[in-house]
Amino acid sequence: MNNDPFILGGVTLASRLFIGTGKYGADSLIPAVAEASGAEVITVAMRRVGKQQDTQGIMGHIPPHMRLLPNTSGARTADEAVRLARLAHAAGCGDWIKIEVISDTRHLLPDGYETAKATEILAKEGFTVLPYINPDLYVARACAEAGAAAIMPLGAPIGTNRGLRTREMVGILIEEIDLPIIVDAGIGRPSQACEAMEMGAAACLVNTAIASSSDPVSMARAFGAAVRAGRDAWLAGPGAVKAQGQGAEASSPLTGFLR
Amino acid sequence: METFQEYLQAWPAERRAAAAANATEADVLAALQKEILQPADFLALLSPAAAPHLESMAQRARDLTLRFFGRAVNIFTPLYISDVCTNQCRYCGFNAKNKQPRRHLSIDEAAAEADVIADKGFQHILLLTGDARHLSSPQYIADAARRIKPRFASVGVEVYSLTTDEYRLLVDAGVDSMTMFQETYNPDLYAWLHPVGPKHDYGFRLNAPQRAAEGGIRSIGVGALLGLESFEQDAFATGLHAWWLQRHYPGVDMSVSIPRICPHEGSFDVQYAVDDRQLVQYVTAMRCFLPRAGITCSSRESAFMRDHLVPIGVTRVSAGVSTAVGGRATEDLHNPGQFEITDCRSLEEMAASLAGIGYQAVLKDWEDPVAV
Asked: What ipTM was assigned to the predicted interfaces of this complex?
């Protein structure tokens, strides 16, 4: 029995790892990656989804039990993101939407202002909105006030596999925002996903690190385990870290008898 | 606002040549260690000093390509809708002086050709015309685009230089991408190669991508026709052009094409033939300089070369190519087209070849949020 369910948008999820569908050498790898990861949520770019959801396209490879998280990749403004979200809904992809608004193709950094605007519009329309943002407290607050179901800050720029370069800022969001924080983008290794979960992130979304590995299925399995380990560590509550120079502290202190 | 033509004056041919000639092995190795390369680093990677480090460049390019594009390669196919041309470009099969049959498709004929292409499974299409405004007007190109758009996820154009308003007209008709080949960035050589016709205007062509960006085109490709000018000169200027556009129009999706001059109708003495090693140096240097830019490789290249260029940087390839006007719907193969095709693989064959090297052919990679 899972004593630590993750409830998002009214849905209970057993896994806190979200995976992606881009960059694979073949879409036919997706079912095995999904199974190995244990993930229940999978994101798909609307720009890759065909006009009809046939079995030939990417949608035909997504296991039916998985919850779709369509994203608005390609949108440069709030208006464009809103249109893509509505298209996703009309195409039968459900009412979850990851807002991606990127108008800088050189660095692929999200536009916080436009993201918050799209979040407000779509949340009012009943979508479960997951905005992808720079880990900026003010943008996160704006998205939360606009009705976001979770906040998805980047760990590092998309595709870089550099890990939690934004650790301090993500930590502030975890502390300050009363919504699940799902670290998205930049995580390159399972240990980095584990670190994010140890910090108190609610979940991690990983695509490039799995898709670009030599063995995506094994890497997906590793990420699934890492996210679970990190979550367990967070729940367990790590022991305090002693500052350098304070000396060691024995696990059975010599003065313990005085209690 | 500054134009690229103005910016390029900071990199005159003499400076480019001297920098390439003086680049050292240390410059090359330093460039390969950098996360963000500057133009001088790019030039070092294109220089003779980089040639011995091709494998290291390829390794770096492969890692960057995997990181940002994964193992996915976009597939498109061209549709030539007119080969009537008023230019007399010395290297081109469409040269107005070439006595070959010409054809200009009506909108219905263009749609019929496009239908055949769509039925084969292509979703990204590129419309091409010769340079004959009186016949292939911007309105004609827009009409053709609007007509075929419902059957394609992406409609691009590779046509003569337009004004900003004319690019806007195409955007309104559903065009999302444009490719503009400057051919050579050497103005004197350019003038000699394009002696007659509107293409003679070097500056108007050079600044066309900028006008396209201002007209709302979302995806822009640039390229030099390799072999017209010395390798480092045009290779560097092309990358610099893409880099400059990326910095000035950050919302535009940039790509670079890497064509080498091919045999064609007529004759042209290639002075600066680019060999395979140089082409690989170009692709890998470009990937290191512009990690997120698309790199397009046409069917001018052989299947062997294309299959080997994909892992080290190429992200877009054509398939099922015909450079002749018409012929798909009518089987009327009336002329040899603009250039000879080296790689004749169909969509299925291309997808199978890519799968054989562990890559996926992506047919749809665009959903126009404006049209939704």
From this structure: 0.80
